[in-house]
Amino acid sequence: MIQSLDIISVNIWSILISLVNLLLLFLILKKFLFKPVTKVMNERQNQVTAIYADAEKDRQAAADMKQEYETRMAAAREEADGLVRDAVQTAQRKSDSIIADANSQAAHLKQKAEMEIELEKKQMLSDVKTEISDLAVSIAARIMEREVSQQDHADFVEQFIENVGENK
Amino acid sequence: MSKAKKDKMIDILLLCMIILPFVFCMVLKVLTTPGSEGISITGALVYFEIPMPLMPLQITEVQVTSLAVIISIFSLCLYMTHGIAVVPNSKRQLVAEYVVEKVNHLIHDNMGSKYASFAPFVAAIMGISAFSSFSSLLGLFPPTSDMNIVAGWAILVFVIITHYKLKGGIFPYVKGFFEPVPIFAPFNIIGEIATPVSMSFRHYGNVLSGVVIATLINSALGGLSEMILGWLPGFLGDIPFLRVGIPAVLSVYFDIFSGAMQAFIFAMLTMLYVATGFPEEEYEKRQAKKKKKALSAAQ
Predict the structure, then answer these.
(1) Which of A101, B9, B64, B82 is most buried, most CB within 10 Å of its CB?
(2) How confident is the model at residue A166 (pLDDT cuts 50, 70, 90)?
(3) Where are the domains of chain A?
(4) A22 vs A136: which has the higher pLDDT
(5) Positions of E strands within chain B
(6) Touching check for A38 and chain B: CB below 8 Å?
(7) Which residues of A touch B152 (CB under 8 A)?
């Protein structure tokens, strides 16, 4: 027949065993739960820190690259603006010179034409003079019915015409 | 055999090792419990005695269950940390990390970060106390309702508290008993001894009261069932129907809530006693003095 203990009983050895049990469990937990878990958690912490550092580095590099790109873009834009401005200026200059050329040429042509007109006018005048003098001589010869020396008449008519021209 | 298969085998083995000790205890208890008439509130069953000096060591249910608890927790630890990896790939690893982190947090909040090495000890107190109390859910005699068991823990805690108190030097420790006036010395000594006594009695009393009340209610429900449902024909009248279900509800409080609560209180008191008992100023003064001595000796 198996006996039961009293509901309240004290046994030194039982106390000692329980004390040792708790110590044993403490060692077990320390060795088999806390040690591996802490180790893994520390490792993870290190990894996370490393990953964060890497990410920060990459971010920094990207920011640098962006900065550089932006500077380059600005430079390129400046350059393009300069090119356009130069081209516009050159075109302006060219068009100006072309217009000036055209103007001067036109003036030249006009002058030439005027000169030719003047020359022709003079030519015509002299032709007319000759004609008139001839006519006058013949008329005078008829009037006078005599032979007037050609030379005399010519001089005469010439003088006349001159006078006519001046009285006009 | 492939590695995955081997891991699976180890897992199953460890899971068995968590459960089997309790199964063994239950079988042992069922085989050895004498048939009893009426209610009897007794201590643990004594399996055999080993003659020892002073008094014989009685190997009782309590010792067997305590051992089962330790083996179970050990297996649980191995199971949770089996296949542990930096990148968590199993739920049990998360549970293990949660437990460790929670305990570390508790230590940090209640004692300060310099007591970080106390975490496994506090976890051990909580684990052994809670598992022992919960073992009554399986119909076992909970080790925490035996005074000797809890007294053993309390004495260990008392030793640790005293060890920390002595870190400030023996003289300040002794002097502490004669504060504020020498007449107070007996009361101070009683107060010192009261610490482990109160701790163990509180824990043990709470769990034992739960067991006693559960036994009383169980037998009362049996009687009530016989009174109300005794008219049922044949064997139906012999079945105590009221005993089904109601004790389970009560055990939610007496076993689970009370057990967890007492485990927490015991661990909490341990932390607080150790943290408050440690005379930091005296210790630092002493360390400084030691350093000075070492320096002067070196010169």
Answers:
(1) B64
(2) low
(3) 12-167
(4) A22
(5) 46-50, 57-60
(6) yes
(7) 14-22
